[in-house]
Design goal:
Layout (H helix, E strand, L loop, with lengths): L4 E4 L8 H16 L8 H20 L5 H13 L6 H17 L7 H8 L4 E6 L3 H10 L8 E4 H4 L6 H11 L6 E5 L2 H10 L3 E5 L12 E4 L5 H7 L11
Parallel strand pairs: 1-2, 1-4, 2-3, 4-5, 5-6
Helix pairs in contact: 1-4, 2-3, 3-4
Length: 242
């Protein structure tokens, strides 16, 4: 059965989150006079990313709200557990100013969306909040490219749980076998989509591994996606992309 729609991850798939986060935090540390409080800027960035992963996992599990995980990240990063909600919000908002100034889509995004749109429907499924990702997509000029935008905070379930992917399938009114999911995380995105019955496509831009799980398709750039989708058959011949 042919693929009829593509669901997309956002961060580090469409949007260059890592570069924006790096640039934004470097500028923020300098502006706040915090750079000297760490061994190096790279060390500060490593700490920030470790805390981001820890607190994002709490949010994904439903233990805290989107805003609460932000506040707890700030408190842990600064080592100030008594920081008020307002103070933590203000600190994060100052970081966000630098972060947003560095926002950009990957250069292969618009060309592939232009190429695929006449043939495929498009939607977004993100482990974030709708308010956050809707603003991001609109700022980047991408929101109108997608019929649906679904996010974990509103769904009450996060990738890689099958429920998140199946909710997106229902929003598109298509069965999972008609939909491909494209994301940069092999476990959360590609394997999660595969296990929910979609075609899981792992966008491995930086060739991080030579191992590809069974039933997952790997591409190293979005320019490879059209050939994969056009050549894909759900049962039978293998994908033209390894």
């Amino acid at each position: 059965m042919p693929i009829r729609a593509v669901l997309w991850d956002i961060d580090d798939t469409l949007f260059d989150y890592t570069s924006a986060d790096t640039t934004g935090m470097q500028r923020h540390l300098t502006a706040e006079g915090l750079a000297d409080g760490f061994e190096s800027v790279d060390h500060a960035l490593a700490v920030w990313r470790e805390l981001t992963a820890i607190h994002w996992a709490r949010f994904a599990a439903g233990s805290v709200s989107f805003q609460e995980q932000r506040r707890d990240r700030v408190r842990d990063f600064l080592g100030e557990a008594s920081l008020s909600d307002a103070e933590a919000d203000d600190w994060f908002d100052r970081y966000i100013t630098h972060y947003r100034a560095a926002w950009a889509v990957f250069p292969d995004v618009l060309p592939v969306l232009d190429l695929l749109t006449p043939r495929y429907r498009h939607g977004v499924l993100s482990n974030s909040s709708t308010a956050n990702q809707d603003h991001r997509l609109r700022t980047l000029g991408l929101r109108d490219r997608f019929e649906v935008l679904l996010c974990a905070e509103d769904l009450g379930v996060s990738k890689p749980a099958a429920g998140a992917f199946l909710a997106a399938c229902r929003a598109l009114d298509l069965p999972p076998c008609d939909i491909a999911y494209v994301g940069d995380k092999i476990d959360i995105d590609a394997c999660g989509a595969r296990d929910a019955g979609l075609t899981g496509v792992w966008l491995d831009r930086f060739h991080t591994s030579d191992e590809v799980p069974a039933g997952v398709h790997r591409i190293n750039g979005l320019e490879q996606l059209p050939a994969l989708l056009h050549g894909h058959t759900r049962f039978g011949a293998p994908s033209p992309i390894g």
